[in-house]
Amino acid sequence: MSMIELILLCLLATLVITTFLGWHAGNERRDVGLLAGLTALCGVGAATALVV
Fold first, then answer.
1. What's the CA angle centered on 49, arms 47 and 52, to 5 degrees?
2. 32: domain range?
3. Which residue of 24, 27, 32, 40 has the lowest C-beta tally within 10 Å?
């Protein structure tokens, strides 16, 4: 695992935690959905970096 993959995984973990906390705090559904979408895109990027 290279440094860039580790950074992407840390970013992904941070975004997942932030999305969960935003949902749990009762933020706007639209805002949490946007954050979840960006988190999913980051997850796809991290998975691609790990595979390739």
1. 105
2. 3-51
3. 24
Total domains, the chain: 1
Instruction: Classify residue 26 as left (phi > 0), alpha (psi -120 to 50) or beta.
Output: left
CB 32 within 8 A of CB 23: yes
Secondary structure letter of residue 26 according to DSSP: T
Q: Which amino acid is at 16?
A: V
Per DSSP, 18 falls in state H
Give, as one character, the DSSP assignment of residue 49: H
pTM for this structure?
0.86
Residue 5 one-letter amino acid: E
